[in-house]
Each structure stands twice: as structure tokens, then as C-alpha cells.
Amino acid sequence: MTAETTSSPADQAPSSGPLFYREPLPLQSDKHAAWRLLPGSLAFAAQTNAIPAVAGEFGMAAQHFPILFTGKDAAPIVAVGLARDNLFVRDGVWAEDTYAPAYLRRYPFVFMQSEADDNYLLAIDAQAEHLNQGGSDEGEPLFVDGKATELVDNAMRFCADFTREHEMTRQFSAALVEQDLLVERSIDVTLNTGEKMSVNGFHVVDVEKLAKLPDAVVLAWHRNGYLALVHHHLSSLARFSALVKRQSELTAATPAA
């Protein structure tokens, strides 16, 4: 028996607010003095087929996932599933020997822009399952004697790096849109079990349009790194076959209802 599943790599994204974050709050040493962080679980990412990506990780991500573009702003994502589920998370643990996207490694921390100025504040998802809000002594403290711990300092640095990468990525995506290089694509696959799946709603760089870029643009993109990012994206599309293999193995191992 065969079944057909249609999904979009962006259909898990919320209409507002960052993906996965339910209640981000700015960290404050007085209000959150007793908060602790337990060993992390990635269960929160188990039911998404796409994760936001930043330019600095294209090289590593391209070795493991298709890098695609979604939405009017051409935001890059890595496809981690053909249906709605993430094929790389099992029992809250990321697949061994597979690159874990920076967006996941940042969680539950995130930068929030201050309403008073253009500065950023370190925030944390107050509803993160591995956050202990002082109910016990379990986990690593966020503050000791009113001062941020190494855990918070490291999170601050990571979020600062991520924010810089996000801005560079936004500029890269804008350049793709400006040059009209993106085209909408969909794929139809048949699993080893015979089940058929269609993945749609994503964009890729059109190779023919890329070849027609003016020489001045090609040179500028070579120098600023955009050309390398495009090539990482194009090479990553071959990873769809790895997704099909993973989905086939999962489907075959799942007992029929």
C-alpha cells in the first residue's frame, strides 16, 4: 500500500517570533538568581522539517542537509525531514556524526533588541523544558552571587556571533533576490517502502541565471564570499538522497497502525 504526503520545508515556522521560542525573557541577575539549566534535550526540535541557517555554517551544513531558501526574503534553512518530523532527533538526541545547526545549539538563549536603544539583551526561553526556575538545586546556575556564570558568558558570546552571522546572511539573501537568481522548486520521491512524498514551497538558485551574472557581480561575490555560499547551497542539494534514505529506514522500522 502506498500513501502520499505533501510538505513544505517552511510549514513549521511560526507566523511571528523565532522558531521554538515560546516565552523569551531578558535575563536579569536579580529576578533570575535561582535559575539553572539542566542538560539539554533537543526534543523541542523533533517535529520540524526545517531549521534556520546562517551563512557561516553553509560549508558544514552542506555536507549533511539540503540548504534551501524560503519566503519573500529568501531566508536560508536546512531541510531535516521530508514530512513534518525531524529525521535527525531521536529521544531528544541529535544524530551522531551529523552537524548540529547553530540555531539549535543557541537554544534556549537568544538575543532580544532593547526597546530603549539598538543594543541587544541576552534572553532565555522561560518555557524551555530543561530550564529549572529554582525549584531545586539541579542543573548549572546562571548566576552566582549576582554575577553571570561562565554558562551565561558563553551564551552571550555565541548569541553575539550568531547575530552577526544572521545579518551577513540577510545581506546575502537580499543579494540573491536583487539578482533574481531564485526559482521555486518541488521534489517528488518514492521511499524504499513504496510510499510517495512531495516536498514543495522552497527556492533554489537557478544555475542558468547564475551563469549569466555580470562579470562585475561575479567578481564582487567572489571577493565577499557570496559565490562560495552559492556553491555550498548547490552542492547541498545532493543531500536530498540522504533524506530519502533516512525516511525510508524510519518508515520501514515503524510498525503499521
Characterization of this structure:
The chain is built from 7 helices and 16 strands. The protein is α+β, with helices and mostly antiparallel strands.
Helix/strand layout:
Elements: E1 4-7, E2 24-26, E3 36-37, E4 50-52, H1 58-61, E5 67-70, E6 75-79, E7 89-90, E8 93-94, H2 102-106, E9 109-113, E10 120-125, E11 131-132, E12 140-141, E13 143-144, E14 147-148, H3 150-178, E15 182-190, E16 196-205, H4 207-211, H5 215-224, H6 226-236, H7 240-253
Parallel strand pairs: 1-16
Antiparallel strand pairs: 2-10, 3-11, 3-12, 4-6, 5-6, 7-8, 9-10, 13-14, 15-16
Key terms for this structure?
257 residues, alpha+beta, three-stranded mixed β-sheet, three-stranded antiparallel β-sheet, 7 helices, 30% helix
Mean pLDDT over the residues: 90
Shape summary: flat
Would you tell me the structural class of the helices and strands? alpha+beta
Total number of distinct structural domains: 1
Q: Main beta sheet, described?
A: 3 strands, mixed
**Rg on CA atoms, Å:** 20 Å
CA-to-CA gap between the ends? 13 Å
Q: How many distinct beta strands? A: 16
Q: What oligomeric state do these chains adopt?
A: single chain
Lateral arrangement of strands in the main beta sheet: 1-16-15
**Helix coverage percent:** 25-40%
Q: Which residues form runs of ≥5 with pLDDT under 50?
A: 1-8, 11-15
Beta content: 15-25%
The helix/strand series, from N terminus to C terminus, equals: EEEEHEEEEHEEEEEEHEEHHHH
Q: Count of helices?
A: 7
